[in-house]
Automatic annotation (TrEMBL):
Belongs to the GTR/RAG GTP-binding protein family. This is Ras-related GTP-binding protein. It comes from Champsocephalus esox. Its main location: cytoplasm. PANTHER family: RAS-RELATED GTP BINDING RAG/GTR YEAST, RAS-RELATED GTP-BINDING PROTEIN C. One of its GO terms (cellular component) is lysosomal membrane. Pfam families: Gtr1_RagA (PF04670). The keyword GTP-binding applies. GO terms for biological process: cellular response to amino acid starvation; cellular response to amino acid stimulus; negative regulation of autophagy; positive regulation of TORC1 signaling. It is found in: Cytoplasm; Lysosome; Lysosome membrane; Nucleus. GO terms for molecular function: GDP binding; GTP binding; GTPase activity; GTPase binding; molecular adaptor activity; protein heterodimerization activity. Keywords: Cytoplasm, GTP-binding, Hydrolase, Lysosome, Membrane, Nucleotide-binding, Nucleus.
Length: 379
């Protein structure tokens, strides 16, 4: 495997103090905070619920705070609601509320209206290595209570800690949980309540892919982003493309072709390589500068004639593509189409920051006509 790394001017292109590797967390700069008129209460919420020791806090720490999976073994049990404000871009902008496993919905002090009213997604975590009968009972109680308050919530079930199960056992467990949960909902006349199930583990990329699916459901721009990616890859000879949030490695959009887990893992690993190389060679001697900026770009050529191609889209987003080596011979065309794609993404980003009702949804498609090629030449 050979790496061709293109990042000639890492320092200071965004005038950001510090760098991702130092804090490697989310959070707006002071100027961003002043310009951002939305308050935390306006952001959609993702609730993490489940029984004690099911892995809720570990998931949050691994995905959004870059904690090593092995370090999560030393996390203490959550004994109160922990609110984490995730603000990386207009596309990934929400709060995560981590609930203690012993929360009592029947307690009169539990305000279901306040908790569930502003919730975009409810993630219920089930420990697949434990007896999940009690977890299923709590799942039914949780989602039925939430659905009555806010039927628009996306209900997600993470069948967690599957790294210790065989492939057959994983499938059987998922099928059994799906069947039992839906039977209970049917008995309660809640057939319209839809549960999405995912097999997850913090020891591989499955937790990142599952969270990607959850976050995508909260993005009103998702159809536009997918459309832009489809146009870009179809005119550039690219096989697969992901639009990644660089810090969390959640992909906020991909093209319409099926996601192959191995391809997704390769793209995640490429982001790590780019950031690691930038930390070593891209920063000033005093550690100042930024490890990821508008000049960041990388090309990795694999031994199987496959090329991985990364380009910066915004200071929080990266486009990572997979293509054949012969297709990359038309690099100029790909670069031009990427320039048009990047311009269109920035327009979607700007539209998302406008006050509601300031423009019609059709304005989100501004720039699509540029992002393409015709008969091998750029339009």
């Amino acid at each position: 495997m050979s790496i061709q790394y293109e990042d000639p001017t890492l320092a200071g292109s965004y005038d950001v103090v510090g760098s991702f590797p130092k804090s490697f967390g989310y959070g707006a700069e002071e100027q961003d905070l002043e310009e951002n008129c939305s308050t935390s209460a306006d952001k959609p919420r993702i609730l993490l619920m489940g029984l004690r020791r099911s892995g809720k806090s570990s998931i949050q720490k691994v995905v959004f705070h870059k904690m090593s999976p092995n370090e999560t073994l030393f996390l203490e049990s959550t004994n109160k609601i922990y609110k984490d404000d995730i603000s990386s871009s207009s596309f990934v902008n929400f709060q995560i509320w981590d609930f203690p496993g012993q929360v009592d919905f029947l307690d009169p002090t539990f305000d279901s209206e306040m908790i569930f009213k502003g919730t975009g997604a409810l993630i219920f975590v089930i420990d697949a290595q434990d007896d999940y009968v009690e977890a299923l009972e709590r799942l039914h109680l949780t989602v039925s209570r939430a659905y009555k308050v806010n039927p628009d919530i996306n209900f997600e079930v993470f069948i967690h800690k599957v790294d210790g199960l065989s492939d057959d056992h994983k499938i059987d467990t998922q099928r059994d949980i799906h069947q039992r949960a839906n039977d209970e909902l049917a008995d309660a006349n809640l057939e319209k309540l839809h549960l999405s199930l995912y097999l997850t583990s913090i020891y591989d990329h499955s937790i990142f892919e599952a969270f990607s699916k959850v976050v995508q459901k909260l993005l009103p721009q998702l159809p536009t982003l997918e459309n832009l990616l489809n146009i870009f890859i179809s005119h550039s000879g690219i096989e697969k493309a992901f639009l990644f949030d660089v810090v969390s490695k959640i992909y906020i959009a991909t093209d319409s072709s099926p996601v192959d887990m191995q391809s997704y893992e390769l793209c995640c690993d490429m982001i790590d390589v780019v950031i690691d190389v930038s930390c070593i060679y891209g920063l000033m001697q005093d550690g100042s500068g930024c490890a990821y900026d508008k000049e960041s770009s990388a090309i990795i050529r694999l031994n199987n004639s496959t090329v991985l191609y990364l380009k910066e889209v915004t200071k929080f987003l990266a486009l990572v593509c997979i293509l054949r080596e012969e297709s990359f011979e038309r690099k100029g065309l790909i670069e031009y189409n990427f320039h048009c794609f990047r311009k269109a993404i920035h327009e979607v980003f700007e539209v998302g920051n406008l006050p509601q009702g300031a423009c019609s949804s059709s304005n989100n498609l501004t720039g699509l006509k540029y992002a393409g090629a015709h008969n091998g030449s750029a339009v």
